[in-house]
Amino acid sequence: MQQKLFTEVRWISHGDSPDATEELDLKNWKANTEIITDSLWVIPERDKSGAHTGYLHGNFIPQIPRQAMLRFTSKGDIVIDTFLGSGTTLIECKRLGRHGIGIELLPDVAAKAERQVSMQDNPHRISTKVISGDSRDAGVIERVRLAVEELGRRRAQLLVMHPPYHDIIKFSDNPADLCNARSTEEFLAWFKIAVENTYELLDRKHYLVVVIGDKYTNSEWVPLGFYICKTVMDCGYKLKSIVVKNMTGNRAKRNRENLWRYRALKGGFYIFKHEYVLFFRKP
Q1: Are 73 and 22 in contact (CB under 8 A)?
Q2: pLDDT tens-digit profile of 94-123?
Q3: 6 found inside a domain
Q4: Does the residue 18 lie in any domain?
Q5: Contact in structure between 23 and 74 (CB atoms under 8 Å)
Q6: Tally of domains in the chain
């Protein structure tokens, strides 16, 4: 049995007001120097402090969930990550004082994420919970809903999604893994189910953040970012911002920089140096 990281906390509820929004102190807005407000994020390397590591290939950098939490949540709020991976979002939850719930499809990855999250200190005495399962499974979503209720809330205040970029990286042989979708259309259909399933878990006027990149197939650029954007909007979300984040520190491309340059020149294409951080608001 996996170790439970969900601990008892004393909770003062803000309530689930339909008019609740992010709680930035705009009277002292100049003090918020860490929050990025530009649509181009040039981040030279991933944050390796605390319990963060880059052991899982394809995981996203901690600065992304950190920026989303600083901008669109307050201490004591609830953050849900539906593609948890190595636990990056929950580690940042513990550092920033947000309760975190993560869903991870692969049991071995989920177990390792629990161990990694447990290594991060917890000065704010918040709760984190890792749920092993498919975010498209109604039973898994029910477990998340119950976890939210245990914290004294009806809904979360931020959703984070960093799905596989279709088949760029083969994470597993699990037929439910989005990396094993047989086509772009199937990948988008599977992802849409995860978005629809979690829609009611998010408080109104709060944010869903999706991190996604494009890809090449048969020498043709496949704009996954644009397709995902349309898919999420079709589920009822309103697009608030598109952030382009640089991938200068991408380990695989950095180690083979000359080879990639040769391939690009020969093939008539450009090397991916960016991914998208899409910000949606639930109306």
Answers
A1: yes
A2: 999 999 999 999 999 999 999 999 999 999
A3: no
A4: no
A5: yes
A6: 1
80: its two tokens: 């849900």
Residue 22 is assigned to a structural domain of this protein: no
Q: In the prediction, which pLDDT does 269 show?
A: 87
Structural domain for 154, as ranges: 49-281
For residue 26, give both structure tokens.
Answer: 């705009």
Predicted TM-score of the model (pTM): 0.87
Cβ-in-10-Å burial (0-12, 13-18, 19+) of 244 comes to: middle
Opening angle at CA 91, ends 56 and 65, nearest 5: 85
- CATH number at 274 reads 3.40.50.150
> In this structure, which amino acid lies at residue 93?
C
* pLDDT number for residue 256: 72
- Please state, in angstroms and rounded to a whole number, the distance separating the CA atoms of residues 151 and 10: 9
- Give just the sign of the alpha carbon dihedral 96, 102, 104, 109: positive
Q: What is the pLDDT of residues 156-196, one digit of tens each?
A: 999 999 999 999 999 999 999 999 999 999 999 999 999 99
Q: Counting Cβ atoms within 10 Å, is residue 53 exposed (0-12), middle (13-18) or buried (19+)?
A: middle
- Asked if residue 99 is part of any domain, the answer here is yes
d(Cα 124, Cα 120) in Å, to the nearest integer? Answer: 12
Supply 245's token pair.
Answer: 């984040």
CA-to-CA distance for 197 and 140, rounded, in angstroms?
10
107 φ, ψ (degrees, to nearest 5): -60, -40
Q: Are 281 and 207 in contact (CB under 8 A)?
A: yes
In the numeric block, which tokens belong to residue 56? 């899982």
The pLDDT > 90 percentage for the chain reads: 71
